[in-house]
């Protein structure tokens, strides 16, 4: 790690055993440093001010301020940390709301340690975690009466894109990595990153995960 700054992680979970377990596990990775842990979403803002984390591992269900509202508050800050939501169930109805709030992805709490470390590294590098299979299940749990509105909103946003940009957006919606998109569309990884940045600007979206959800809402 000589000359390379470790990725700073804040752990937020109301269960002290989960918090301690995640902290111990993350400290086993040379690339990561756990800078703190709090038990409620209401304490996240002060912890971010004090420790300046790069990534926040955020529990969704907490007795005080829940992870979704805490995420929404963090995303309003200038240069906010990346946020990975933690949940016990892959069909948790709150996960979709967390992604809409600006989270960079989510993990199940029983994810193997190497999977959690990999997720933190990827999110810190600007590649949010999105599981297409889980996303499809989440979308299936949404209220049917909201489906038409979501589809119309998604089509409106994506109508701002060029044909090539829509191809990139569709690939993001299928959960493809930048390298996969580059190979599929015969362009460089750097060009893919430029396209995604331009797409986010045109659609006023915060991150890649929100783009993927929009792509799911409006089949391309």
Percent of residues in β-strands = 5-15%
The secondary structure category is alpha/beta
Q: Count helical runs.
A: 11
Cα(first) to Cα(last) distance is 42 Å
The dominant shape is: globular
Question: Which bin fits the share of residues in helices?
Answer: 40-55%
* Mean model confidence by pLDDT: 83
The largest beta-sheet arranges its strands as 2-1-3-4-5
Give the secondary structure arrangement, pairings included:
Elements: E1 7-12, H1 16-26, E2 32-38, H2 44-51, E3 55-59, H3 67-75, E4 82-87, H4 94-101, E5 105-108, H5 113-124, H6 132-140, H7 147-158, H8 163-173, H9 178-185, H10 189-203, H11 208-217
Parallel strand pairs: 1-2, 1-3, 3-4, 4-5
Structure commentary:
With 220 residues, this protein is of the alpha/beta class. It is 51% helix and 13% strand. The chain contains 11 helices and 5 strands; from the N terminus they run E-H-E-H-E-H-E-H-E-H-H-H-H-H-H-H. It has helices at 16-26, 44-51, 67-75, 94-101, 113-124, 132-140, 147-158, 163-173, 178-185, 189-203, 208-217; strands at residues 7-12, 32-38, 55-59, 82-87, 105-108. A 5-stranded parallel β-sheet has the order 2-1-3-4-5, with helices on both faces. It is globular, with a radius of gyration of 17 Å. The protein starts with 6 loop residues before the first strand and ends with a helix. The relative contact order is 0.11. The model has no long low-confidence stretch (mean pLDDT 83).
